[in-house]
Amino acid sequence: xxxxxxxxxxxxxxxxxxxxxxFCEISESEEAVFTEEQMLKIDKxxxxxxxxxxxxxxxxxxxxxxxxxxxxxxEKARIFVKHYYMSMLMAIERGELPASAANxxxxxxxxxxxxxxxxxELLAVSEKLFESDSMRVGSGGKYFANPSIxxxxxxxxxxxxxxxxxxxxxxxxxxxxxxxxxIRKDADRFIAELHNYFDKKFAEYKFEKQIxxxxxxxMKVEPGQNIFEDxxxxxxxxxxxxxxxxxxxxxxxxxxxxxxxxxxxxxxx
Length: 269
Known about the structure:
There is one protein chain. This protein is mainly α. Helices cover 58% and strands 4% of the residues. The chain has 7 helices and 4 strands. The protein has helices at 10-27, 36-93, 119-138, 149-169, 180-201, 207-216, 241-246; strands at residues 2-5, 177-178, 220-223, 263-264. The strands form 2 sheets. It has a two-stranded antiparallel ribbon. The chain is rod-shaped and about 95 Å long.
């Protein structure tokens, strides 16, 4: 008897299903190892987790691209905002502006330049800067030329665009892949069933040989004995009692939220 060593990750599911697919192809010319229903399930689950892996890779690549652009634009916009405050400070020091000009911005000369350590703080400081500068210029104040308020706004707007994408578009949640939690649990049960099936089939071999045979199926096993219920069926080690109750036939399940980046799968075979 053997116990399946299984971590319930998408990578492991795909590895096992891919090995099973290859095993199906090899065994087609020989005596059928799997039933037609099992072969359909293997094909179905493999396609689902293969697409899911491709989707996850795409999301990760987009996040990396976005993070790079985010950091670059954050630093650029931050420098322009800081330099605008520095221009005002130096203009006051040179006597080109009265010290009272700082009061429009809620500051008292001499003042410290805002550091803005994150995107949220940068946007908050920038919004206050634009409002205050508009009030100062509207009261007869002079425009700054290096940098101009227009140039500062351009870079802040560019940063704001990627900041909104980062905080909204790729905030991927479990519900964005419809019904995926239930699909994962069903795939785990199916993999456990196949392990139990082959565990009986390989029982006549020495355990070292069993390990080798299971490796061909993408599975890792260790010595042990499955725990059985009164009806003779193995206890499902992948589900808690709470999960079992949630997935009972008379319970309604939430299929997940719809969204732009949502994948949709079904479990019909």
